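Teaching soon. Invent one.


***
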Amino acid sequence: MEKPQEATTQQQTQEPELRTVLVIGAHPDDPEFGCAATIAKWAAEGKIIDYVLLTSGDKGSHDPTLRPGQVAAQREEEQRRAAKELGVRSVRFLHYADGMLENTMELRRTLCGIIREMEPDILVTIDPWRRYQLHPDHRAAGQAAIDAAWAAREWYLFPEQLLDKEPWRVKEIYLFWTDSPDYWEDVTSSIDRRIAALKHHYSQVNRRLDTLEERIRQAAAEAGKEHGYEYAEGFKRIKLR
């Protein structure tokens, strides 16, 4: 009689499955350069993945014949194709100015509303505390996403968003491009999908396609070496439960 009771207790204390994932980046291609093999693996396992990109990367070209609007349109389409390659459900662009992103209260309010609307179990974003992170958009995007996740939990922060729903608690945050990884995802089965997705960002990688795959595999192999994985991606994981 004791054994079945013990098994029941273990089942009751088991943590619920985290199924929904929101990835917030500054630019098209940030997720693919940062964590796409993990995204592909999670999608294949049945997790529901959504992207929010704060800018459309409209300054991301050195071609003087292209206007920012043309660059933005191209990069948005590249991002949609890359996301489809990985199994991502949706991609949303907020159209903030590329290269001028700031962690304002208005941005925090917007992201808080999106988190409450989409109710992700997991938030994936850029580590804003990475040492010598020079790109201001990357710092601002990561900090705004984390601040918004905190705000989304609270009844009295942006309460106008709670007229017909309750606050939402993100359970875990995964930070990519981090100096302080403490969690490694085995992506041996999905590294090829990451490389395939990156190749959809042709406007950004066309001049380095010949070395791109080698560099991606080498970095992932180094990340996995100490943990017994052929390929891995490292994150700083923050548990909020």
